[in-house]
Amino acid sequence: xxxxxxxxxxxxxxxxxxxxxxxxxxxxxxxxxxxxxxxxxxxxxxxxxxxxxxxxxxxxxxxxxxxxxxxxxxxxxxxxxxxxxxxxxxxxxxxxxxxxxxxxxxxxxxxxxxxxxxxxxxxxxxxxxxxxxxxxxxxxxxxxxxxxxxxxxxxxxxxxxxxxxxxxxxxxxxxxxxxxxxxxxxxxxxxxxxxxxxxxxxxxxxxxxxxxxxxxxxxxxxxxxxxxxxxxxxxxxxxxxxxxxxxxxxxxxxxxxxxxxxxxxxxxxxxxxxxxxxxxxxxxxxxxxxxxxxxxxxx
Amino acid sequence: xxxxxxxxxxxxxxxxxxxxxxxxxxxxxxxxxxxxxxxxxxxxxxxxxxxxxxxxxxxxxxxxxxxxxxxxxxxxxxxxxxxxxxxxxxxxxxxxxxxxxxxxxxxxxxxxxxxxxxxxxxxxxxxxxxxxxxxxxxxxxxxxxxxxxxxxxxxxxxxxxxxxxxxxxxxxxxxxxxxxxxxxxxxxxxxxxxxxxxxxxxxxxxxxxxxxxxxxxxxxxxxxxxxxxxxxxxxxxxxxxxxxxxxxxxxxxxxxxxxxxxxxxxxxxxxxxxxxxxxxxxxxxxxxxxxxxxxxxxxxxxxxxxxxxxxxxxxxxxxxxxxxxxxx
Lengths: 299, 328
Known about the structure:
The complex is a heterodimer of chains A (about 300) and B (about 325).
Chain A: H1 2-39, H2 46-62, H3 70-96, H4 100-122, E1 137-140, E2 143-146, H5 147-169, H6 171-181, H7 183-188, H8 193-215, H9 225-240, H10 245-265, H11 271-285
Antiparallel strand pairs in A: 1-2
Helix pairs in contact in A: 1-5, 1-8, 1-9, 1-10, 2-3, 2-4, 2-8, 2-9, 3-4, 3-8, 5-6, 5-8, 6-8, 9-10, 9-11, 10-11
Chain B: H1 14-41, H2 44-70, H3 78-95, H4 99-118, H5 126-146, H6 148-151, E1 157-158, H7 169-193, H8 195-205, H9 207-212, H10 217-243, E2 245-246, H11 253-265, H12 272-288, H13 295-327
Antiparallel strand pairs in B: 1-2
Helix pairs in contact in B: 1-7, 2-7, 2-10, 2-11, 2-12, 3-4, 3-10, 4-10, 7-8, 7-10, 8-10, 11-12, 11-13
């Protein structure tokens, strides 16, 4: 009986909360995949830029820089994220068409700068940044569901839904798919690669801000919080197969649940090592991502 | 990643490249000679810092080698340096065994783990290896701290056993690092001329041709990571001996990024002088900026970007100027 009890009281709540955080990892991973799919660049600055904007929301709403309302602060942060994404892509765009490796290293440089700017502006202190949502909780089938859970779920569903609709039905989305499928043919057909790249980078930045703002209430905000969060997003993207948007979604939820189970049942001290092991195992078993059909290796 | 990062200086003819090889031998000899006599002129703190420079240069070389021969990026070479450093540290403090035995062990461990981590991404784009090494870099401090029975945890280990008994330790820490750097550079230069090196370069530049000649791509991908991991471990071993202490603080995620930055700053060069520039950058910048810690990431980021953009625009500017000169 005690086995079932522990299952009910530990396992299901763990899976539930893992899925909630997993949705946020998926938001981060979707941003990474968007950029990688069309420009073949792995954006290592994703986490640090999102972290900088989360700090911006804190600074603007807490009275440190200004005392705006939370909504206005988020709006400013989103604009800042879009501007930063625009700037980063503008600087590296000549490299993108030359070498994906060089441009990937360049994004690492932007990540360092973003982290340094965060440190210089906001210091190394840990701060708390909450969401302005009603606090309530109710239990369904033994699961404690909080207002935070529902907010995350709703925001994630709406954001991801909107993203997939844009990609499936709008002209920009079709151009995006064409370019990820075959950039050369798409260019021959008259599509402007750069404008689609801008679209991907800016969308990714917005996804990053949304993910960062939603993950921060579960922990505290420090210079490295969001970057650590993005590591899980990287793992999610690898598991999903770096070039697949639905894969990123599934990978995110999977990583969220696995990490939650691991930290509870085994040890919270080895979480990065565990993540490494997950990546290594996933690459061995599903080299092209869990949603990809097994086929010949593509080099 | 199909890539041209190695062609960071395009437009170089084969002849000029050959002549560069010939002069670089002479330059290297002069540099080594100067470095051998430098401790006679400099104070103890400078010899210590230079020793660390040499050790870091080896790490920079390991990262550059991976880019040049494999077309892959590693953001996690601290794993290998930690492996090498703790081989030296543990054998030294627990068993009193000096570098004679611990360096070969470090090399072996580095190669084995390099192969191990490259294997899962053998058939994939280099990004998978980059992300794996990123996870590796973040996991290293955690592993060191949690295996504290062996590694001494936060407190770290102190390396005190001399390499050659009877010689002053301060000088040993300098000359052993220099010796290691020269040996590794010579070995890499030999690799360039060996069949193995040719096969690796062929597999990277012309995969189809390599297949036709019977060079297996998987083997090339995995083996270059093994070689690079081994050199990374030698860097760690040297770092442990020259720096005299081994502690988790030396193998953080930052350290891993710094090695990559050093490799970019030296334009992925594999010659002694080039890697010395990278190693010096990695060692000296944090020392100069130690008072204003927050500027370190900004400066490293700017250096990284600056070098990459320089590598991109310089050849174009030079070509444009040459064309103008020809027209006149």
